[in-house]
Each structure stands twice: as C-alpha cells, then as structure tokens.
Amino acid sequence: MAAPETVLITGASSGIGREMAKLFAQDGSKLILAGRATDKMEELAEELRTKHHVEVTVMTVDLSTPPGAKDLVDQLDTQNFQIDVLINNAGFGQLGRFEDIPLQRHQDMLQLNIASLTELTYRLIPGMQKRKRGSILNIASTAAFQPGPNAAVYYASKAFVLSFSEGLYAENAEHNVWVSCMCPGPTRTGFGSDSEMENTPVFRFNSMAVEDVARAGHNAVRKRRRLVVPGWINWLGAWSVRITARPMVLWVMKQLQPMKS
Ligand SMILES: NC(=O)c1ccc[n+]([C@@H]2O[C@H](COP(=O)([O-])OP(=O)(O)OC[C@H]3O[C@@H](n4cnc5c(N)ncnc54)[C@H](OP(=O)(O)O)[C@@H]3O)[C@@H](O)[C@H]2O)c1
Prior knowledge:
Rossmann fold, binds NADP nicotinamide-adenine-dinucleotide phosphate, 13% strand, seven-stranded parallel beta sheet, alpha/beta
C-alpha cells in the first residue's frame, strides 16, 4: 500500500484551516498543523488521531515574523517530513483607514499574507517538482478581485496571492505539481471579529458556513483546480467586477465596507 500523503496546513488552529484538516484526515492523510495556538492544535490533533487513526504533528510557529517560514521548514527537516500538499491558509485582515491602522499591523499582515506564504512555497516546491508530485492551495479571498477602500492593504495582499498562484499554476503543471487558489467571500470564522469586518454589509448580507468553504478548498486540491470561488453570490461578484467600470467598483466597495463608526 502507498504511504499516505503528508499535508501541511498553516493556520490550522481555527476556521477554514481547522475544517480542512478534518477533511484531509478523513482521507487518511498524514497531517502537520501549523500556527501559534499550540493548545488548540493539540486538541484538534488528538480528535483527528482518535477519529481517523491518522498521524498528526503540531508545529508552533509565528508566520507574521520574517524568520517564521524558515523556522517551520527547519522543524519539518528535523523530523524528516516531505510535504506532498501545502495549504497556505494562515492570514488576517484589518478594517480601517490606511493611516489609522498601526504600521506594525500592516507589516505583520504583509509578512503573513504575502511574504511567509511566498517563502514557504519557495522552500517546499522544489521537493515536489523533484518527486513530480505535489499540490499547493493558497487561500486568497474575493478581496483579490478588486481594491478595497477601508481595508486597502488586506485587499492588495490577497490580489498578490491570486496573481502569484495563477502564475505558478501555469509554471508547474508540467511538473505534475498543482497550484490552486481559493477565493472565499465572507465566511463565519474568527476572521470577521479579528479584522473588525464582521458588522460591515459585506459580512452581514452574505456569509458562508466554514464547513462549505473548507470542502471547496479540499475539492480544489483533489480536482487540481486553478481557481475556486465558493458560493454563487461570491462567484457572481468576482466576475462582475471584471466588466464594471473601476470608479463604479470603488464606489460600491466603499458603500459595502464603510469605516468603523
Ligand atoms: N473568514 C473570512 O471571511 C475569509 C474570507 C476570505 C478569505 N479568508 C482567508 O482565509 C484564511 C483563513 O482565515 P479564517 O477565516 O479561517 O480565519 P481564522 O479563524 O481567524 O483563522 C486564521 C488562522 O490563521 C492563523 N494565524 C493567524 N496569525 C498567524 C501567525 N502570525 N502565524 C501563524 N498562523 C497565524 C491562526 O492561527 P493562530 O492564531 O494559532 O496563529 C488561525 O488558525 C485567511 O487567509 C483569510 O484571509 C477568510
């Protein structure tokens, strides 16, 4: 029998990452859960071992710091793990006027959402190419499709993730390495309160269950999809911005995502 694939999930302590861990565990995959909240990940690891009889390892790492990605890869190397599936899921957002948000919060977001995601991919993709087997799923957002007044850095960070993922998709198909990007819309996780976006019209009128979004991500890996936008309203929104004049898109986004009162 072939050895089970090894799946690394960043941001596996809660939300979409946690739910995706459950789906890969159901498949019998060997899991590595990475994030800062060690207790929450240990609790999930125990649940998955008991329910699905899979091997689960917890790795504590802060990916909003520059050494984070290398620290994580060092932990993988020390324990001789080869990664077959990389889920770059960890990320956060922040509502607010650009200059009102502390610079450190912007820097942490750029490090986590962009720099660490890029570095983890850089460090892990050569092994996949060499073995001619691998999948990477990057979690962007419907924020990737247009600018976001009052959350400008978050939206721009997700535009990077989408563009980066599609570029790598085209580069890597010939290596049998599949780079997918999932762009969820508002999803009921801790993200809404952490980013202070949960009371914006964007969140109040259209949010999805985390289980459904995780299933779309799992499916994207299994079906080697280039791009997945879960939920038909999100899908419609993502495509309609492509045929709408930019000033109109910006005006609508400003109404949908007003400043904190
Ligand atoms: N929920 C939404 O509405 C929504 C919509 C579109 C896209 N997304 C994207 O989906 C992804 C997952 O978010 P979620 O909705 O599941 O939110 P969540 O429940 O807040 O989960 C975020 C995860 O990221 C991890 N994380 C945060 N800071 C980290 C750090 N410095 N180092 C390592 N891990 C860190 C957290 O783990 P620790 O706290 O343990 O570190 C947590 O497990 C994010 O990239 C987000 O941008 C979410």
